[in-house]
């Protein structure tokens, strides 16, 4: 049995998904959370570090405590928490887990779309608050709802998640538009982002966060969207200029927005999006939970273990550095 020393830095992010496989196969230290001040000590004498959201930067990789580190497994698809240039410089492999949450995130995206269209949560709250019981008619009509059939859905980022979202959305009668990548001639089945924003009734974001996509949906692009359109983001918070979005929602230029991700997570006290969500009924915010179906978390951990096994077998997989 391979008893290589490994460390899990933020096991709390996996919830109740079992971690026994790691303790059985390797000499594994498990930490529920890791504060920045504790990170270097927890990497000492470890060959592998598993992180979901604990950043590992150049200073950490250059430290004496990290000299035995050979592999960082990001227990997620996005690897923006790792200084990949520094990892390459110091000879540390980095791998990720692509596609593990595609079904979960796509399902959650559709749920957010349905919430914006039907306001199920708001109407359920009207029962809990006693509003329905006090109604002079048989129903409550406080929140406008729409039918999705016949509307246009713009998908920005057409990878594993975007494709499943599009497939489910077609079954609801939505017409699908797919954004072309910036700086490249659009293939026949795709349209430039600006054209998509101007035509879509709903825009959903599924692209990675890179220097090119930061604030992709900014003031100018929000102004291109149709009056009353919906914006959904289950990808990365920094894809959206949050201040500009709040202004658009307050002015009712957009019909609504649903965000499962924001610029700082967990949000600090007074975060503008959280404050706006308390104020605006056309803004829905959930706590970065689209990925978290039990099946998704179990699949994630199986793939993390597979990445480690492949690395020690000399056949590394899902390598990004």
Question: How would you describe this protein?
Answer:
The protein is an alpha/beta fold and 321 residues long. Helices cover 35% and strands 13% of the residues. It has twelve helices and eleven strands. The chain has helices spanning 20-25, 36-43, 58-61, 84-89, 102-118, 120-128, 160-171, 193-199, 219-224, 242-250, 272-279, 294-312, and strands spanning 5-8, 27-30, 48-51, 71-74, 93-95, 152-156, 175-178, 202-205, 230-233, 256-259, 283-285. A six-stranded parallel sheet has the order 7-6-8-9-10-11, sandwiched between helices. Strand 6, helix 7 and strand 7 form a beta-alpha-beta unit. The longest helix is centred in the C-terminal third of the chain and has 19 residues, at 294-312.
């Amino acid at each position: 049995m391979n008893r290589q020393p490994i460390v899990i830095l933020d096991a709390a992010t996996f919830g109740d998904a079992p971690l026994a496989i790691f303790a059985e196969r390797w000499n594994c230290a498990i930490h529920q959370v890791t504060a920045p001040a504790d990170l270097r000590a927890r990497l000492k004498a470890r060959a592998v570090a598993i992180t979901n959201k604990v950043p590992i930067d150049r200073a950490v990789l250059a430290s004496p405590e990290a000299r035995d580190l050979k592999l960082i497994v990001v227990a997620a698809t996005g690897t923006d928490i790792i200084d990949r240039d520094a990892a390459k410089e110091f000879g540390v492999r980095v791998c990720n887990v692509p596609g593990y949450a595609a079904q979960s995130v796509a399902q959650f995206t559709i749920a957010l779309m349905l919430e914006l269209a039907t306001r199920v949560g708001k109407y359920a709250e009207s029962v809990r608050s006693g509003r329905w019981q006090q109604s002079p008619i048989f129903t409550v009509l406080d929140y406008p709802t729409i039918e999705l059939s016949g509307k246009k859905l713009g998908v920005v980022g057409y990878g594993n998640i975007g494709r499943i979202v599009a497939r489910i959305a077609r079954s609801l009668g939505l017409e699908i538009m797919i954004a072309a990548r910036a700086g490249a001639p659009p293939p026949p089945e795709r349209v430039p982002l600006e054209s998509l924003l101007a035509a879509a009734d709903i825009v959903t974001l599924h692209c990675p966060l890179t220097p090119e996509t930061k604030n992709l949906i900014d003031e100018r692009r929000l102004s291109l969207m149709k009056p009353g359109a919906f914006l959904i983001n289950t990808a990365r918070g920094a894809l959206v200029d949050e201040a500009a979005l709040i202004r658009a929602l307050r002015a009712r230029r957009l019909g609504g927005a649903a965000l499962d991700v924001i610029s700082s997570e967990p949000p600090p006290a007074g975060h503008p999006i959280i404050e706006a969500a308390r104020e605006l009924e056309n803004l829905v915010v959930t706590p970065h939970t689209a990925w978290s179906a039990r099946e998704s978390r179990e699949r994630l951990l199986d793939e993390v273990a597979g990445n480690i096994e492949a690395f020690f077998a000399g056949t590394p997989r899902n390598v990004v550095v």
